[in-house]
Write the structure tokens for this entry.
Amino acid sequence: MNKHKTLIHKFIQSNPHLDYIISFCKKFKINNEIEIYIVGGVVRDILMSKINRTKLDIDFAIDGNIENFSNRLGYELDAKILHTKQFNAFHIENNDYSIDITHTRKETYPKSGSLPLYENSNITRDLKRRDISINSIALEIDENEYKIIDPCNGIKDIKDKLIKINHPNSFRDDPTRIFRCIKFASRLNFGFERESLDLLEKSSRYLDNISNYRKNNELKKIIQNEMIKEFHLFINKYNFTKFFPKNFMNKISMIDKKFWDKSTIEEKIYFSIFEDNLDSKLLFVTNLGLSKQSKQKIIYIENIKQSIINNELKIGKEKELISNIYHCL
């Protein structure tokens, strides 16, 4: 564990944004009865040396007066503070930071796919309620040192390159974890712990328990953030296509990477379900709550596609878009 503390300490010293925030937390603890933990993806990424150095994305779990801590931190960073009352969660953002703050808590799910009921609890229960072990590691900030808290053995699973859920009801409780597990396994090039894979393969029925918005939002995150061709190969390798819409990303190998990387979300949605009819594409956009302009963009691309099919296209400004539609036909 000491080598992991050394790794964390070196990274904090090398990252002035993170060092600044932790210095604030240490000073705040001196005059306040509070426990402050950094949790989630940033801890995982530091331990894997895969941190994004451009904009710092941090999750805090707080055991104490969360409102006072959040307001003081927002003031210190001269950043906008958003408060979600339903979960008593705070979000702070500026050009350098994106910070989410919640109280340490435990959760219960009244039924599969429902939003959780929560109550304040301790850090161990908070970590055990999370999706997978590698996302369930906390770094406790104390005045003089850092303490790593790892009740689900996430550090070992990072070493072994395994995706492991924290409890057997994980997918039943929150079916969006199906997409998250697949996404992390693909992104990190990890395998699956045997029991977790067995439970995952039996969990497709739970996707009927969440709204189209929540399903499509997970798909949107995937097409926005993942290395999409690698992701498509990954879900076919593990026969995970049953979790995704029919024909999802079937044409992705035919799309130019440079075009994809700079394409709009509407273009990404369109090409991800290229073989679906226009009504299905518009329904996908509607379920996400995107704007009227987004629907018009989908219709615009569809009109180009039909013009190509009918040999009626007049080449205009959208040469890259047109070229990639040609490749997919």
Notes: The first strand starts at residue 35 and ends at 39. The CA atoms of residues 229 and 251 lie 10 Å apart. Residues 211-329 form one domain. The chain has two domains: 1-163, 211-329.
